[in-house]
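Thread title: Can someone regenerate the structure for this chain?

I was given the following input by a collaborator and told the matching structure tokens would be attached. They weren't. Posting the sequence so someone can regenerate them.
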Amino acid sequence: MFYFIRHLTRFRYSAPVSESVMELRMQPRSEGRQRCLAFQVTVTPRARVLSHRDYLGNAVHHFDVPSAHRHLMIVAESTVDVAPVPPPALETGEDAWSRLDRELAEGDFWEMLSASQFAHWTEQMGQFAADLNLPSPREARSRDPLELVLQVNSAVYGAISYVPKSTRVDSPVDEALRNRQGVCQDYSHIMLALVRRLGIPCRYVSGYLFHRAGSNVRSSEGATHAWVEVFLPGPGWVGLDPTNNVVAGESHVRTAVGRDYADVPPTRGVFKGEASSELTVAVRVTHADSPPPPETEMESDDWSEVLHNDSAEMDRAAAEQQQQ
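Best answer:
Regenerated them for you:
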């Protein structure tokens, strides 16, 4: 399945700022059953965009706007091919936990087994695990690892209500546990802590989700998405989406992986100036049976209106700055 993704990010400042420095993690990864066929970033005001890869293989784009501005707009566009994902299955023969122990000893999984900024064990996390009747690390060794992580995925889905804007991107995991509600980042952070506690590597995945008509998806359309990947003997990294209680598949587009959200925010930056900022994000994921031709959809009515209005506002702001 081919996807065309447009991700618009807009910062409005209450007063002119003299400089903005920003890094982005918006380019879909190319590995396994996913290929990023095309990617481009457009920044207004214009800026030279550079790129590199971080130590986890995520593409990082970064730029500096060194002149005064009151608006900053970033449009990232991707064309991605995602092949169907077969159901995960453990290989028969050697005991699954013995093989997992051997692969962990031979590989580099320490960071995905350890506590991280947003995914760590707390008193409330322990009570939550007890409420869900999840096994202890020792008890887990008598269970099939795949069945176990699927149980955790389903349990988190059933215990937490999806409520948009109920938490912030920097909310501690206990906030979602206390209120039993959250968004996709919260589901993912809770599952990270629960699975790592069982001795199974687990990592955070940021990206996009295509909402198929008629699908039972409760995460928000028009926004980025998050889920987790667990490392299992045989299939390797397997994606699980606790927000929607599914195995990540052809509708999930992977952008970046990390220990938790702190490693992979779509945007991270600073600006110089005494001003407050307002952030607006809009995401559109469309699909096709073949790659869309260049510039397809660029002038669709609603998006062109957004871009036109922003350009007009930026022109007015620039004129105001020249008059000051």
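Residues 296-308, 317-324 have pLDDT under 50 and may be disordered.
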